[in-house]
Design brief:
3-stranded antiparallel β-sheet; 43% helix; Beta-clip-like; transmembrane; binds zinc ion; SET_domain_protein; 397 residues; mainly alpha; 10 strands; SET domain-containing protein
């Protein structure tokens, strides 16, 4: 700028300083305005000041990015800009669906299969379908006889609650006192080793592998069970959860479900024709084997990139099998691996994926989503940063 001004000054008569800097010049004859900016006009100084300010801002942005890289282990542009976290999180490509005011499901009688829950309308992936408090909780450690504890709990229930409790199915069907059988058949973990019975949620039937479409989780904060849609569900479809780890062959799944819950599973995966069922069994068994191999990273028997290759392979098998559950945890495993090997970019990618899937499976306000968000925003603060050999472990794709 100064060189240009000097050159222009030389070529310009001193008596006409207006020619030293011309921002715009048009002929008056054309009828358009003529604007001349001289080196000593306020506009000239405003331009210089504005350029200087832009340069200062650029320098500030660069030094903020450097400081951020130092602090968080990942290079980002203008990380200090207001709303940065919100902006990056909104780029994840998934929005939690709005809570529906309408009832999304109803409990119905299913011919030959007892009761079940069906969708009353189309339900979007990640929707909160149900939240429910337990009618009965049995803590892990009791200093009284469990049978009398349960009897006392039941005596405190309202008539409607008691009816809901005794209306639940149970195994074995010929139990002399049905309440322990109802509890062992229907109760789910409620934290701290306790179990609870949730009469509506307990109406969810089982589906194996890619056949189940909802997941339940317990909320410590509210003491409720919540059920979320794992994928888009169409009106009239039965809502199915899973009672067990179904990453195993059909005969093993069915034997377990029959002995534990007293039914022969006829879900979509169990009903596949023999050749397809065999293929599906192989895929599910492979998933389980790969999970086992992935655990070796914990014992430092695998490099970071080997571990993440396994994560990607499990992910791909899940995609082929329509098995979309557990993806939050799978991505969260990668979120442990990547920062351990000081790979900030990979940590961010996997943290974004984990946030997205935890939000679908557990709800966007779940602590696991927040946990992943922290790593997404600043990988170096993950608590495991640099605990393993530095390595480019690779992102999601
Ligand atoms: Zn099945």
């Amino acid at each position: 700028m100064s060189r240009q001004r000097k050159a222009n000054t030389k070529a310009t008569p001193k008596q006409d300083p207006a020619r030293t800097f011309s921002a715009a010049s048009t002929s008056p004859a054309s009828g358009r305005s003529t604007t001349r900016v001289t080196w000593n006009t306020p506009l000239f100084y405003a331009i210089i000041l504005s350029l200087g300010f832009s340069l200062y801002q650029f320098w500030q942005g660069q030094s903020a990015a450097r400081a951020y890289q130092e602090e968080c282990g990942v290079r980002l542009e203008v990380p200090s800009a207001p709303g940065f976290n919100e902006a990056v999180i909104s780029q994840l490509g998934w929005r939690p669906p709005k809570l529906s005011e309408e009832r999304l499901f109803e409990v119905v009688d299913l011919p030959g299969r007892g009761k079940g829950i069906v969708a009353l309308q189309d339900i979007e992936m990640g929707s909160l379908i149900l939240h429910e408090s337990p009618v009965l909780v049995v803590p892990r450690s009791l200093n009284v006889d469990p049978v009398s504890f349960v009897a006392h709990q039941i005596s405190t229930l309202s008539e409607a609650e008691r009816e809901a409790f005794y209306g639940l199915s149970y195994v074995p069907a010929d139990a002399p006192d049905v309440s322990p059988a109802i509890i062992s058949t229907n109760a789910v973990a409620v934290g701290n080793g306790g179990i609870g019975v949730f009469p509506t949620m307990a109406r969810l039937n089982h589906g194996c592998a890619g056949a189940f479409n909802v997941v339940y989780s317990f909320r410590e904060a509210t003491g409720e069970i919540v059920v979320h849609a794992l994928r888009n569900i169409t009106k009239g479809e039965e809502l199915l959860t899973t009672y067990t780890d179904t990453k195993r062959p059909r005969h093993e799944r069915q034997a377990y479900l029959s002995s534990q819950y007293g039914f022969e599973c006829s879900c979509a995966v169990c009903s596949l024709p023999p050749s397809q069922s065999e293929h599906s069994d192989k895929q599910l068994t492979k998933m389980s084997t790969l999970y086992g191999e992935l655990a070796a990273w914990g014992a430092a028997e695998l490099s970071g990139s080997q571990a993440l290759r396994l994560v990607r392979a499990i992910w791909a098998l899940g995609e082929q099998e329509g098995y979309h559950s557990e993806r939050g945890q799978l991505a969260a495993d990668a979120v442990t691996v990547a920062p351990s090997h000081s790979d900030g970019e990979a940590a961010r990618e996997w943290a974004a994926e984990a946030m997205r899937w935890f939000a679908v499976e557990l709800g966007e306000e779940h602590p696991r989503v927040r946990e992943m968000q922290k790593v997404f925003v600043c990988p170096k603060r993950s608590g495991v940063w640099g605990t393993r050999q530095t390595e480019r472990v690779g992102g999601v794709h």
